[in-house]
Design goal:
The complex is a heteropentamer of chains A (327), B (335), C (538), D (308) and E (337).
Chain B lengths: L6 E12 L13 E12 L3 E6 L5 H8 L7 E6 L2 E2 L6 H10 E4 L3 H4 L6 H11 L5 H14 L6 H4 L8 H13 L5 E5 L7 H18 L2 E5 L3 H7 L2 E6 L2 E7 H6 L4 H9 L39 H5 L5 E2 L5 E2 L4 H8 L1
Parallel strand pairs in B: 3-8, 3-9, 6-7, 7-8
Antiparallel strand pairs in B: 1-2, 1-4, 4-5, 9-10, 10-12, 11-12
Helix pairs in contact in B: 4-7, 5-7, 7-8
Chain C lengths: L1 H9 L2 E2 L11 E5 L6 H17 L3 E5 L2 H10 L6 E6 L9 H6 L18 H12 L3 H17 L3 E3 L1 E10 L19 H6 L8 E6 L14 H10 L4 E3 L5 E3 L2 E8 L2 E6 L13 H9 L10 H4 L2 E6 L4 E6 L6 H6 L7 H11 L20 E7 L3 E6 L11 E6 L3 H10 L4 E2 L6 H10 L3 E7 L3 E6 L9 H10 L2 H8 L4 E3 L22 H11 L3 E3 L4 E2 L3
Parallel strand pairs in C: 1-21, 2-3, 2-4, 7-16
Antiparallel strand pairs in C: 4-19, 5-19, 6-17, 6-18, 6-20, 8-9, 10-11, 11-13, 12-13, 14-15, 15-16, 21-22
Chain D lengths: L3 H4 L10 H18 L1 H23 L9 E2 L2 E2 L20 H37 L1 H15 L3 H12 L3 H27 L3 H8 L4 H37 L10 H10 L8 H24 L1 H4 L7
Antiparallel strand pairs in D: 1-2
Helix pairs in contact in D: 2-3, 2-9, 3-4, 3-11, 4-5, 4-7, 4-9, 4-11, 5-7, 6-7, 7-9, 8-9, 9-10, 9-11, 10-11
Classes of the chains: A mainly alpha (327), B alpha/beta (335), C alpha+beta (538), D mainly alpha (308), E alpha/beta (337).
The structure holds adenosine-5'-triphosphate (2 copies) and magnesium ion (2 copies).
GO molecular function, one term (chain B): ATP binding
Family (chain B): Belongs to the ABC transporter superfamily.
Organism (chain B): Virgibacillus byunsanensis
Chain lengths: 327, 335, 538, 308, 337
């Protein structure tokens, strides 16, 4: 293990985070309008307004505010929501798990299925199976997510009533623990439609990536040699081909998780999924800056972290890197 | 301009270390000493060959001499001017005109989007040589020199429309079109088919002689070097282990590595049997160089001193130097 | 093409008009189509009308927060804006609408954001406030409505229909209460609805998040639904829109400014403590501490509260207040003193106030107890079977569904059984109800109303005849038919037709469309240039 | 010393060969399209939509905002018929006309986002990959930052602040989307700069500018164009998504706006498929066109495929 | 009897517009214990031939004609399962690029175990023992079987590849350019290894290369291939010393030798485009001795004593031609015409 390198990379990650946080701060502070507009009721007096400004630290100079903000970030404090009058981090903790469940669940399925079909499409390059499959993949990848989600809703929820149309669990369901929730059928029924929508969308990337990596690997000598040894088709396909082609896909996966968290906004809105994406949209609509800023920062932090992981994974998994020096 | 001696190139203790990219698994943290203290000089108009096993730093040396790499350390004088320091624009331009490189892979060396004409014209344009007409006539002249006739049928072709042998001729023409003094040819024929290889080699021999060019040939193939070069340098892991006139080196090698190298070259004569090599397997690489002689773990003659003291290049005859503590004994043994 | 020609014949066309007779571009503010399709479409209609009148017009759609920010804080900056007044129980009394909206006291920073200033009107608005005699007060209120119409103060569009759909497999039909101006979604329904089958949960939808469950702070409408059920009030508005005693056994006016309240015996907080007169006094005194800014205006007129015994207390008002029952007794939540007193004391010297305090488990005394709250998802309340008006159902669950299409789907597939808010296409809703045997719809006319406000401070809206012309353009009938598909009632006053007692039904407002507008403007001296652009009177 | 050339120091100004080079690389692009059926399909889709966008006023029978009246009768929620080919919206607007006009913002957003992506991404990638060292580090850290910013939320926030105009959406996308292009181009440049002909140009004494723009750039042009075409799809999808969430430009009839309009007007429940489906398909087609071109250019990216 | 017989084998590639005749009628007999070298210019179809024998052809390749017989049985006609049985068990192969010939994500022993358990009917334990044996045989410490491919040097990898080729005791080993791209010293090690194994294990080896010195040092027999056909065949000594085909003559001229001091002569021109039909001799465009007949009539293979054969119209006059061929000027003529 190269600790110095790890430390350097962590340093780089923190730097990136800091820059993003700074950009964010200035975006939110320098935009037009009164940041407290949504909050201040018509019945407020001038004094009350000023008191509020003080309360949120808005009476200080921009630089001071910035320093306080960064200082708070270090302490893990994201401020107070204007809207919910609660600390941003505790609000976020309510919804973050939901986003993560939905995302991970869809992700794992999408990647397993995607990789599988990527392998098959590469193996059967040039056949009808591939041509049709590829067109289908491109269609799913091109269709607007919200559109797909709404069509699925109309068909499977409203029309056939197979799946509930929104939320993470049935009305009034009570779970003693998160674990109980995660093991209940009800939860998966609720997750079905949003995750299908997400899977349909996510599927494309690992599939296409796997396919092209696989095509690359299939041209490699060791695959040809495996054929010459008279090994079976599936053995060659998976042990030789997929096993080697999957490495870049795994790195892509790490980055992809980060992206999906950020891109979940739409699915969460369509399916009333109480996640961080929807929280962000609501916060932006309500001009709840601290909340919007906090949600944004958490999403960004997650993405930056996943990029970092992807980088490390790449170093760990790529034989060329781990061979070091060798040609 | 005329210096006291008539060496065009003087290299002393030239080094190029590559620092590996960091990664989480720090398998190798040491710098890779691709060229590790190389000294030699080349007389004007003479040709010298650099041989050695793959990865010993031949190409890197060649690139250092063309300033395609910045040297880590050492000195490199061209025509008496020190080049291993920051050069002015003018100096650099001048050097670029006088020193040229011929690439190993002719299929790569020409911009696939340029016609042959354009590729050949480019150096002339860069160096502001001649009017358009001058340039054209110079191009035609060069193509004729490399025996690409009739010239017209080549001028406006694209690289992919030419065969490897033809391309390598174009590459040669391109490197010579600005009338350089110095040419580095890095494995100039290794990508070519045997049957056309000879043609290019002959051509190079003919032209460099005619133009009085100072040339460095880089190859792992000793038979080629023998065919082309007056002098030979044998490299091992970034250092020179032996150098001297080609015939001398091939006939009377003094370094155990050179010997192994020579006896490893297969002959086209089926009656000559393959000889056993006197060499051990190695674990040494350019980023993991031991104290003492770099060749110690492969050398069948290695002794205590070889593990501790790095041998210096020492004279072992006229113009013949070798870096081995036991050069005399081993060289003698052979005879 | 044809109609344009006709118009031009009527118009008074001048050539070489002086440049200062031209009007600036008029910008109509509206929420985007997504948020308020009807408002947006109405804005587009006004846009087209003004364009035809010969003005430069543009529609600027922006989110509510941004729009209200401009209208409230930059009172000189906007020209026309879409707006609406929502139905709230206390608005069943005409006081809020007649006084707050138009009294000149609110021009600077009050509800009179449009800057309407008419001393004659101010006098009437003040008088109705203090007039305790109901009949005399009704006369004053009607007079006020007439002035609002005559001055073309607001450009009313409609009272929307409130369409509430419930599942008749779940609820017994007659057990749903339709409350005047408020619709079937109200506390009477939630306490009175009887189960028709196995299902004992009321599951309803809300488009907005629950922001807080706090008796001292109600931020969004969904918050108010919850607080209404968890906390009791001294009085409640009944289904006819009149206040009636709720937690009180009786409310007696001893004179114009003294009220004796007797509480019901045996009420208990959800934590088991008894509800006493001290709690009530605390609830009405708390806003005066400064920690509960939201409720301050509703106790400002209370001089003092005297606790007579555990169940009786006397309110003394600073001056007569006709709307005291509605605006104060039926508005403030009764909160447990034993819980909130320490909290308020603790907050006294902190910058935060009670509004930002969230109890872990909110404790009230109302018909429902707090069950659970899943953020952005749902709030569950359990029936308080010990309540004097105990619900017939077991639980009340509000699901947050921001998506109307989804809500409509869910009432059909049974995920919800009570469609409490529906802002979508009413036509569609009634079709679906038609198609589903188990769905029933209750339609009522909203107490609230939609309108466009013009800025009376600015040209050309400071000119009554221009405002009148605009009234003619805002064709309420067409708006009702096209935009609301008939699921609304044209509005002409701040008082809804359902409040028959207060409503002045002899109001007339020009509605002749573009032709009448041209006529009005021509009479007032407006002219047009040869390209059809409107010119101010000289 | 003294070549015949040196005797006549007749300096001729170098004529810019860039246009020639560019034409040649364009020719390569054209050949590529001609050879690959996938890419060709993509190109045709693009062309059709661009054409529709240009000719929108000619093709569309109504103004997209106009409430259609036939014989004085307002056409609300009617199905497809000979007057309104795809029926009307709940406000009586012609869906077909909206669809046709919708091609305009799509092309506008797509092309301008693609342009920004290609221009910014290519320049950053080129410079970063070519010069290495500090410049590279700086640019790559900047790219890291761009990669650390979630795309859709960023667009939403920026649009919410700058106002819901289509140009702000494009701007927001342009501010971020270049990141992928820059990275890919950089790694491609790292490869190309080591190729023989680039080194040979260096030996010949070519300037950085010449090497960058004459030798390297033409070789990454196809890649840049590929990313441009992908970005085009992305941009259109994003615009649709942003509109769908209600942050779109309310004055511009885009496909995203149409879907949004259909959605809030509950076209789905009303089963007005002729309103709801076509904009989705249009978006899909345009995005897919980008992918098609991408799939075609596999041959450029993976030359080994040509062997099979 | 011949172990492997290739009869008039034609392997063509299907192109978009037409076929590319990479192997166009090759006859070759391989006897047990024989080491036969196959030399030829790049693109003459050597690898295609090997892939044809190993039955792993590109998708667009097909057998146009001819047959491959193993032990007298047609490999093209036999069942898939039988054919798979022959692969590696009977005929195995040493690839050119040994560095990429093994799955990089598994230790090398995995390939041994895989092939021996799947096809050799051995248990895992036995397979590992056998692998260790083979490692010793090719001169690598057996402790290294658990290493990953990238942990070996180039020469070692090539030796591991040889060991792998030996693990099922095949009768025939095909080595497709086993030493190209290797350093002379490593090349030397590999060639000596092959020589040793050939003698110790009585292997039949088909060695493919473009380097006649490699063949000269390892093989008994030599077949010179030109543009999809065998130009000349015979014992190494005879073909190199006493070539009957002008191409063979030219080939020895073009090879530099450390021990000889003569001027190199190249064969100018290039191989004809195999996508087109070729009339006459394939070498005609580069042959300094071409006569009219060569342009129109394809030369037939003529057998000579000592199992030699050549396909040239002027083969009968080969002694005269050999003398002429030593003159550079003779070969240079071709370029200018
Ligand atoms: N740009 C570079 N970065 C890092 N290491 C390099 C670089 N170029 C060369 N090396 C390393 O330097 C060493 C010497 O390489 P060089 O190319 O000079 O060898 P060579 O003698 O030319 O080998 P070959 O015969 O294979 O061409 C090798 O270990 C190589 O991996
Ligand atoms: N899949 C293919 N489709 C079309 N042509 C092919 C295919 N594979 C090989 N070829 C062509 O067939 C000819 C023979 O190829 P082959 O690989 O057998 O040559 P080779 O003698 O092994 O050459 P080298 O010495 O370069 O390895 C070449 O011209 C090659 O371009
Ligand atoms: Mg090299
Ligand atoms: Mg081959």
């Amino acid at each position: 293990m190269n600790w110095m390198y790890l430390i350097k990379r962590i340093g780089q990650m923190l730097l990136t985070l800091w820059v993003v946080a700074t950009i964010l701060f200035f975006i939110f502070r320098l935009m037009p309008g009164n940041p407290l507009a949504a909050y201040i009721d018509p019945t407020f007096t001038k004094e009350q307004e000023e008191q509020l400004m003080r309360q949120f630290g808005l009476d200080k100079s921009l630089m001071e505010q910035y320093l306080i903000y960064i200082g708070n970030l270090f302490k893990g404090e994201l401020g107070q929501s204007f809207f919910y009058k609660d600390s941003v981090s505790s609000i976020m903790m309510n919804v973050l798990p939901n986003t993560i469940y939905l995302m991970l669940f869809s992700f794992v399925i999408a990647y397993v299925v995607g990789i599988l079909f990527g392998v098959l499409f590469a193996w059967y390059r040039g056949t009808k199976f591939e041509a049709i499959g590829l067109v289908a993949t491109l269609i799913t990848r091109s269709a607007p997510q919200f559109w797909v989600g709404m069509v699925l809703l109309a068909i499977f929820s409203f029309n056939f009533n197979w799946f509930p149309s929104g939320g993470v669990s049935g009305a009034g369901s009570e779970f003693a623990t998160e674990w109980e929730k995660l093991t209940s059928l009800d939860f998966y029924k609720h997750m079905a439609l949003p995750s299908i929508t997400l899977i349909i969308y996510l599927l494309g990337l690992p599939l296409l990536l796997m396919r092209s990596n696989m095509l690359d690997v299939l041209g490699d000598t060791f695959v040809e040699m495996a054929k010459m040894r008279g090994l079976g088709k599936y053995r060659i396909m998976f042990k030789y081909g997929a096993r080697n082609a999957a490495l870049p896909v795994l790195t892509a996966m790490a980055v992809g998780i980060g992206y999906t968290i950020g891109g979940n906004v739409i699915i969460e809105s369509v399916f009333s999924w109480p996640g961080i994406g929807r929280l962000l949209v609501n916060a932006v609509t309500a001009s709840d800056y601290p909340l919007a800023q906090g949600a944004f920062l958490v999403i960004a932090g997650f993405m930056i972290f996943m990029n970092f992981i992807a980088d490390l994974l790449y170093g760990l998994l790529d034989p060329k890197v781990s061979v070091g020096g060798g040609k | 301009m005329e210096q006291g001696n008539n060496d065009l190139i003087e290299v002393s203790d030239l080094k190029k270390w590559f620092y590996p990219k960091q990664s989480l698994i720090a398998r190798k943290k040491n710098p890779l000493r691709a060229v590790d203290g190389v000294s030699f000089s080349i007389k004007k108009g003479s040709s010298i060959g650099i041989a050695g096993e793959s990865g010993c730093g031949k190409t890197t040396t060649g690139k250092l001499l063309l300033k395609l790499h910045e040297a880590t350390d050492g000195s490199f004088k061209f025509n008496g001017v020190e080049l291993n320091e920051h050069l002015t624009r003018e100096q650099m331009r001048d050097f670029r005109r006088k020193a040229q490189l011929m690439f190993q892979n002719p299929f790569e060396a020409l911009n696939p989007r340029y016609t042959i004409y354009k590729s050949l014209e480019e150096p002339l344009i860069i160096h502001d040589l001649g009017t358009k007409e001058d340039r054209k006539s110079r191009i035609i002249e060069m193509l004729e020199q490399v025996h690409l006739k009739p010239v017209d049928s080549y001028l406006y072709k694209f690289p992919h429309q030419l065969s490897g042998g033809q391309l390598q001729r174009v590459v040669l023409a391109r490197s010579l079109i600005v009338n350089p003094l110095f040419l580095v040819a890095d494995e100039p024929v290794s990508m070519l088919d045997v049957s056309v290889r000879a043609g290019v080699l002959n051509l190079m021999r003919e032209i460099t002689e005619k133009m009085q060019l100072t040339t460095i040939y880089i190859s792992h193939d000793l038979s080629l070097i023998k065919y082309l070069c007056d002098e030979t340098v044998i490299m091992y892991l970034g250092s020179i282990v032996e150098k001297g006139p080609t015939d001398e080196i091939l006939m009377r090698p003094k370094h155990p590595y050179t010997m192994a190298l020579i006896s490893a070259v297969p002959s086209t004569d089926p009656t000559i049997e393959l000889k056993e090599l006197n060499l051990k397997d190695s674990i040494t690489s350019a980023d993991n160089i031991p104290r003492g002689c770099k060749f110690q773990d492969r050398c069948p003659y290695a002794q205590e001193i070889c593990l501790n003291l790095e041998p210096k290049l020492e004279y072992a005859g006229t113009n013949h130097t070798v870096a081995c503590h036991f050069a005399e004994e081993i060289g003698g043994m052979k005879e | 093409e044809e109609s344009v020609d006709n118009d031009q014949e009527e118009k008074d066309v001048v050539t070489d008009a002086s440049p200062d007779r031209y009007l600036d571009t008029i910008t109509i503010l509206t929420r985007p189509q997504a948020a308020a399709p009807d408002e947006y479409e109405t804005a587009m209609m006004i846009h087209d009308g003004l364009l035809e009148l010969g003005l430069d017009v543009e529609v600027s759609a922006m989110p509510w927060e941004q729009l209200s920010d401009i209208v409230w804080y930059e009172r000189d900056e906007w020209q026309i804006t879409g707006w609406q007044m929502a139905a709230r129980p206390e608005r069943l009394d005409p006081d809020e609408f007649t006084y707050n909206l138009f009294h000149s006291g609110g021009i600077e920073d009050g509800y009179n954001f449009l800057g309407y200033n008419n001393p004659e009107y101010d006098a009437i608005a003040e008088a109705q406030r203090k007039e305790v005699d109901k009949e005399a007060r009704a006369e004053l209120v009607k007079e006020a409505q007439q002035i609002i119409a005559d001055d073309a103060t607001y450009h009313f569009t409609v009272h929307p229909n409130i369409n509430i759909v419930y599942n008749s497999d779940v609820f017994v039909k007659d057990s749903i209460t339709d409350m005047t101006g408020m619709g079937a979604h109200n506390i009477w329904t939630y306490t009175g609805a009887e189960p028709a089958g196995e299902e004992k949960d009321i599951i309803l939808n809300s488009a907005d998040n629950v922001q807080a469950i706090n008796p001292f702070y109600i931020s969004g409408s969904t918050d108010s639904w919850v607080t209404e059920l968890v906390w009791d009030r001294v009085m409640r508005m009944n289904e006819d829109g009149l206040p009636e005693p709720w937690a009180a056994e009786s409310v007696e006016w001893e004179d114009d400014s003294t009220v004796l309240v007797t509480l019901r015996d045996g009420m208990e907080w959800h934590d088991g403590n008894p509800v006493t007169a001290e709690d009530v006094k605390f609830s009405f005194d708390a806003p005066k501490t400064g920690e509960v800014p939201m409720y301050e205006p509703f106790v400002a007129n209370i001089d003092n509260i005297e606790v007579l015994n555990d169940l009786e207390l006397r309110f003394s008002l600073k001056e007569p207040w006709a709307a005291f029952e509605t605006s104060s007794l039926a508005k403030l939540n009764i909160v447990p003193k034993h819980i909130w007193e320490p909290i308020l004391e603790d907050l006294a010297d902190k910058p935060e106030n009670a509004e930002s305090y969230q109890e872990e488990v909110p404790v009230g005394s109302g018909p429902y107890k707090f069950g659970s709250w899943k953020f952005q998802e749902e709030v569950v309340l359990d029936a308080n079977k010990d309540h004097f008006n105990a619900p017939k159902m077991d639980r009340w669950i509000v699901r947050i569904i921001s998506n109307m299409e989804a809500a409509l789907g869910m009432i059909q597939n049974g995920e919800i059984n009570f469609l409490a808010t529906y802002m979508g296409d009413a036509d569609l809703l009634s079709q679906e109800v038609e198609a589903n045997d188990n769905l029933e719809m209750i339609t009522s006319i909203d107490l609230g109303f939609n309108f466009f406000a013009v800025n009376h401070r600015l040209e050309p809206f400071n000119d009554l005849s221009f405002r009148k012309a605009l009234q003619a353009i805002v064709d309420k009938e067409a708006i009702t038919e096209i935009i609301w598909k008939g699921y609304a009632t044209p509005a002409d006053s701040v008082v809804a037709p359902s409040l028959e007692y207060w409503k002045n039904d002899s109001i007339s407002i020009p509605s002749g469309g573009i032709d009448q507008a041209i006529e009005i403007l021509s009479e007032a001296g407006y002219q047009w240039d040869e390209e059809g652009a409107l010119l101010k009177p000289e | 010393m003294g070549s015949s050339l040196m005797d006549e120091p007749n300096v001729v100004k170098e004529q810019s060969n860039f246009s020639v080079t560019f034409k040649r690389s364009l020719r390569g692009v054209v050949d590529f399209f001609r050879e690959d059926r996938f890419a060709m399909t993509g190109l045709i889709i693009y062309s059709v939509f661009i054409l529709v966008a240009i000719l929108a006023p000619v093709i569309a029978p109504y103004d997209p905002h106009e409430m259609v009246r036939i014989n004085g009768q307002l056409q609300v929620n009617v199905g497809p018929n000979s007057n309104t080919y795809l029926g009307t919206t709940n406000m009586g607007r012609d869906v077909f006309s909206q669809l046709v006009y919708g091609a305009r913002p799509a092309v506008l957003v797509g092309v301008s986002a693609a342009f920004m992506v290609v221009a910014i991404g290519t320049i950053i990638g080129l410079i970063s990959g070519y010069f290495k060292g500090k410049i590279d580090t700086f640019l790559m850290r900047t790219t890291d930052v761009a990669f650390g910013i979630p795309f859709e939320p960023f667009v939403i926030v920026l649009v919410a602040f700058l106002g819901p105009s289509i140009w702000n959406i494009v701007l927001a996308m342009g501010l971020l989307l270049w990141r992928d292009t820059a990275r890919v181009i950089r790694s491609q440049v790292l490869v190309v700069r080591e190729r023989g002909f680039v080194e040979s140009a260096r030996v010949a004494g070519a300037s950085h500018f010449r090497i960058l723009f004459q030798h390297i750039a033409p070789n990454i042009l196809p890649l840049a164009l590929l990313y441009g075409s992908l970005a085009m799809g992305w941009a259109i999808l994003t615009e649709a998504a942003i509109s769908f969430l209600g942050f779109g430009d309310p004055s511009v009839v885009s496909w995203g706006y149409m879907l949004h309009d259909a959605f809030v007007s509950q076209a789905l429940s009303r089963e007005s498929y002729s309103w709801f489906v076509p904009p989705g398909i249009c978006i899909m087609l345009v995005v897919m066109a980008g992918f098609y071109i991408g799939r075609g250019s596999e041959k450029i990216l993976y030359p080994r495929l040509n062997q099979y | 009897m011949d172990l492997l017989t290739i009869k008039n084998l034609k392997i063509h590639y299907q192109l978009k517009n037409g076929v590319f005749k990479a192997v166009d009628g090759v006859d070759l007999e391989v006897k047990k214990g024989q080491t036969i070298g196959l030399v030829g210019e790049s693109g003459c179809g050597k690898s295609t031939l090997v892939k044809g024998i190993m039955q792993v052809m590109s998708k667009n390749a097909f057998f146009a004609d001819g047959d491959i017989e193993y032990n007298g049985e047609s490999m093209l006609a036999m069942s898939e399962s039988k054919r798979r049985g022959i692969l590696w068990k009977e005929i195995s192969m040493i690839p050119q690029a040994s560095m990429d010939s093994m799955n990089p994500v598994y230790p090398v022993v995995d390939a041994f175990v895989e092939i021996m358990t799947l096809k050799g009917g051995k248990s895992k334990k036995e397979a590992i023992l056998r692998a260790e044996e083979l490692f010793e045989l090719v001169g690598i410490d057996k402790s290294r079987i658990k290493d990953y491919p990238h942990q070996f040097s180039g020469g070692m990898k090539q030796r591991v590849a040889i060991a792998l080729a030996l693990c099922l005791d095949p009768k025939i080993i095909i080595a497709d350019e086993p030493v190209t791209a290797l350093d002379v010293i490593v090349q030397h090690q590999v060639l000596t290894m092959l020589n040793r194994l050939k003698n110790e294990l009585d292997l039949t080896i088909i060695l493919i290369t473009h380097d006649i010195s490699v063949v000269a040092q390892t093989c008994d027999d030599l077949a010179v291939m030109y543009a999809g056909k065998i130009a000349e065949k015979g014992s190494v000594l005879e073909v190199l010393r006493d070539p009957k085909h002008p191409y063979s003559m030219g080939l020895s001229n073009a090879f530099p030798d450390l021990l000889k001091n003569e001027k190199l002569i190249s064969i100018e021109g290039s191989v004809p485009d195999l996508a087109h039909n070729i009339e006459g001799c394939r070498f005609v465009s580069r042959c300094p001795f071409a006569i009219d007949q060569c342009h129109t009539l394809e030369p037939v293979v003529t057998e000579y004593e000592n199992n030699r054969s050549a396909a040239c119209h002027r083969a009968p006059e080969y002694r005269d031609l050999q003398q002429l061929a030593e003159e550079a000027s003779v070969w240079n003529k071709v370029t200018t015409t």
